[in-house]
Write a structure and sequence with these properties.
globular, five-stranded antiparallel β-sheet, SMI1/KNR4-like
Length: 194
């Protein structure tokens, strides 16, 4: 199996050469195993391999379309928050995401810092893919599938958005960070599906 982390950093470093320095050391394997058990051992191998090398962003850099790729500890904290304070979501793409209250098989993996997340859906509806990446928007109850997998998010969606000029480096910030060019990524998603 190829090293998804190495490929991802290779792509990002084309735009921000020292990007790997913004990521933490490997996730604690005990905590990673605990999280996998929390979701009935459904975490994809690519996700487990990635987090066995780095534990998300230790310094905010916005590597996931302007969102922070969270550490395992932060993922678990947000997961518990959503379970305690569930919100009802509906799927924009019928049959892809199970509609209803927050699903305990949705794992928030990236945060915009303002209450919206990208989550891994480990129990999709009949037309969805296990491990698909979905939106959890604090301003809307509509959820969208943005990638069929963690791998597709890192190795297809993000590079494509760079190539399309939608996602870039803000070199006016210190340190430099990735950002969505025109506002927020979720606004782009809504426009794309309309």
């Amino acid at each position: 199996m190829d090293n998804i982390c190495q490929i991802f950093f290779g792509e990002l470093s084309r735009y921000l050469p020292n990007v790997a320095e913004a990521f933490g050391p490997p996730a604690n394997p005990v905590v990673l195993d605990e999280m996998n058990k929390m979701v009935n051992n459904r975490l994809p191998k690519d996700f487990l391999n990635f987090y066995s090398i780095v534990n998300g962003e230790s310094d905010y850099v916005g590597s996931i379309l302007g969102f922070e790729l969270m550490s395992i500890e932060n993922i678990m904290g947000e997961y518990k928050f959503f379970e305690k304070y569930p919100k009802k979501f509906i799927s924009f793409q019928k049959g892809k995401i199970k509609e209803g209250q927050y699903n305990s098989m949705w794992l928030p993996i990236a945060s915009d810092g303002g209450g919206s997340f990208l989550a891994m859906d480990l129990a999709p509806d009949t037309e969805g893919n296990i491990g698909q990446i979905i939106t959890l928007d604090r301003e809307s109850n509509i959820s969208y599938v943005i990638a069929a997998s963690f791998r597709e998010l890192l190795l297809d969606v993000i590079p494509r958005e760079f190539a399309n000029g939608n996602f870039n480096v803000n070199d006016e910030e210190e340190p430099e960070v990735f950002e969505w060019i025109d506002g927020h990524y979720f606004n782009h998603i809504k426009e794309r599906f309309l």
